[in-house]
Amino acid sequence: MHVPDGFIDAPTSAVTGAVAAGALAVSLRGARRELDERTAPLAGLVAAFIFAVQMLNFPVAAGTSGHLLGGALAAILVGPYTGVLCVSVVLLMQGILFADGGLTALGVNITDMAIVTTVVSYAVFRLLVKVLPRGRRTVTAASFAAALLSVPAAAVAFTLIYAVGGTTDVSIGKVATAMIGVHVLIGLGEAAITALTVGAVIAVRPDLVHGARGLQQRLKLRVNGELVDAPTARPVPAAGAAGSHRKLWITGLVASLVLAGFVSFYASANPDGLEKVAHDKGIDRKVEKHASSDSPLAGYGVKDVSDARLSGGLAGVVGVGVTVVAGSAVFWAVRRRRTQDVSPVSTGV
How far apart are CA 291 and CA 109, in angstroms? Predict the structure, then answer.
């Protein structure tokens, strides 16, 4: 659903850019409360994993494919604020390095694919977790439903943005019907990937899954006549937790590299939902050349490498590497700022 340059006019793109900038500022502040020494490295890995899985277009209908958006997955694994940042890092890397998603449309893409999907999915997820029986299966089931609804929600958001600032005269009703219809199908793939991934992480390290926190009732102690939460011990010894965390991170990175560097070659070559609708309805009549079209990685291939399998694989590996480094740098900085904010102030004697 990456919107290219030329679909949305300049004023609307500027407004969505301002919305995206404001949301990112809020998310940077909110992520300080979500990230700690264990989850900050995981957040960088989540961004890289989303990049890798987005390269795996899957067929959803005749001549149409879909791919993961990632907002639900990121929000449930590392928190909604950090989730917005994860998807935004991916979109930025894709736009600059791979010419995927217009640079003038970056605000549109962040608003649609990062903010809307994360907010909608996490709201649905929290509602379901509250009303359903507490447990790991509930988290997985809620993840499926939240991801499923987040994709058509993004399609609705794009339709509304296009209704305000679309550059072609196309019936909004036809655009809405086509976008929502195909993205409901794509949502099924999104839901399956999200539920499987969340379930896999919960199986090995439930303490690292933001959406699984609080599944067990915390022990209460009475202090001075008031009930307070007792300190929570780690589920495994510190040394074991560190080793388990490191193993999870390495496993996730290897999986991302394999998906982007090898499995992506077998992804569907059909246009994704937005591309298909844009072509069929004439939305793409004023599409503009991407500013990064001359990038050596444009189109998810390495320039001057003639072998398609090798070219795409190398591009995928580079993309995962750049994304995990960029994401980790962002989340390390956020975590460091949090540490500074909570550091005790020396009062002197």
Answer: 16
